[in-house]
Amino acid sequence: MTKILVSIKRVVDYNVRVRVKPDGSGVITDGVKMSINPFDEIALEEALRIKEKGLAQEVVVATIGPADCQQQLRTALAMGADRALHVQTDAAVEPLTAARVLMKLIEKEQPMLAILGKQAIDDDANQTGQMLAALWDRPQATFASKVEITGSVARVTREVDAGLETLEVDLPAVITTDLRLNEPRYVKLPDIMKAKKKPLETLDMASLGVEARERYKQVKFEPPAARSKGIMVKSADELVTALRKKGLV
Amino acid sequence: MSRILIVVEHDGTRVNQATAKCVACAAAIPGAQITLAVFAADGAAVSAAAAQINGVAKVLRVDHASYAHPMAAAIAPQLARLAAGHSHVFGPSTTFGKDLMPRVAALLDAPQLSDIMAAESATRFRRPIYAGNAIVTVEIPAGSTVVATVRSASFEAAGSGAAAAPIESVAADVAPPAHTRFVSVTSAKSDRPDLQTARKVVSGGRALGSADNFKILYSLADSIGAAVGASRAAVDAGYAANDMQVGQTGKIISPELYMAFGISGAIQHLTGIKDARTIVAVNKDAEAPIFEVADFGLVGDLFALVPEIEKLIAAK
Questions:
Q1: Is A246 helix (H, G, I), strand (E, B) or coil?
Q2: What ipTM, to 2 d.p.?
Q3: Which of B94, B95, B220 would you mutate first to test chain A, the one with the most A CBs within 10 A?
Q4: Are strands B227-230 and B257-261 parallel, antiparallel or unpaired?
Q5: Is B144–A215 a contact, with Cβ atoms under 8 angstroms apart?
Q6: Does any CB of chain A come closer than 8 Å to the CB of residue B137?
Q7: Residue spans of alpha helices (H) in chain B
Q8: Whole-prediction pTM value?
């Protein structure tokens, strides 16, 4: 059976203005709205579209994190994923650890494709997909804005600094998503009801044989340096005069 | 002593300026000994240029047909092999470096730090998280290899022109994978300055309303020698090409002058411009968050103001 594995991460919602704790020990997440990382929603949407075209038979969604992550897995199931895998841990999961866990899931599930968001909007690391591709020794097509699958080959258009690059990769492969790949569907109420009956398997890192190793320490969190408040000018003339005074035009 | 290996980003003939910024970051580490690695189909010109960057002790030149286009799957195994004996492996935080470096880190079984904005020591770095809403200081235990991407906007490019560093040819001894093939790259060709490195940037948002309306920004940009950028909203709407996007997931830039027209200033956009020296914002909404970070704000209709500003600049 041809499968697609999609990994999702529970993160502070896109619209929340994140603040650093006064003691510098982290950012405030208590009572803050949590959501599926937006790039991961795009990854799931792409997997669902590939399945709906008849090019895959099953979409498996996975996450790594504490018990609360099951909310996001249920949302993913409501979007249309067939089943969910929850690797439950309360430990901080670094990208390389996440990639190792996902590699274990790949060994178990043998998907033809793993689709991940290009980065999570909390740590902004942009690493896990590439690390997974390295561990799997398979191709990577990162920052995808278009994916076309023909037989055992994916043709992927990537958003790069120079413009748009197209790669052809043999499957199985890892694809990471950029913003313009698709627009994720909205979840409908009946789908939320249906999702409650879909299978959700809980696993732990030890049984997968992965250690939550801490390879670095985040020792201090600070708010960014604030820009000093500027001035409001009344006219184009006043603006150009000010810029001219600074030698900018 | 820190032995730092930096992968050179280039287009086949010229070294991308992001490389000199990686060198500047590495040079801040006490006792840094900096080696550059050039992966190219024919790296003669690029290696010679890279050897000119001040602070570089040696350039490793690795030529192979599979490096004609920078594909992570081809370069990563070879770069990981060259990394042996180095304490740090750096690349630029561009799409090239973001694609490549984590693949190298995984092959080295090493952690990666993305977008480092300061090196406080050989093992202590600062980097932005949450779209720049927080800055975290990260410590890596001594003895662990540090793989990192360097945030270009945080560093002044290292200069060049001192004595050229020696260039050493290295044979590519890792077979490139056949599973990944380059097909094409298309870029909107323009004679304007490169957005990433431009000293001045004129940028537009959704309020422009159409790709055609962006013409007034191109005209203003051309009159002052500026690059043109766009907000995510403008790119999503199809008014501007993806490579023009400025912000958390687009380009992080640090021009001397950034002029934002019709950009409201979502936090994801602001993170891309907060290192700009001077920010100008023109928006018809006086409450737009962009005004909180602007050095000069002007409330009004951009369609009237852009041509007027261009005319006033030309008038001198």
A1: coil
A2: 0.95
A3: B95
A4: unpaired
A5: yes
A6: yes
A7: 17-27, 44-50, 72-82, 95-108, 215-224, 232-236, 267-270, 290-293, 302-315
A8: 0.94
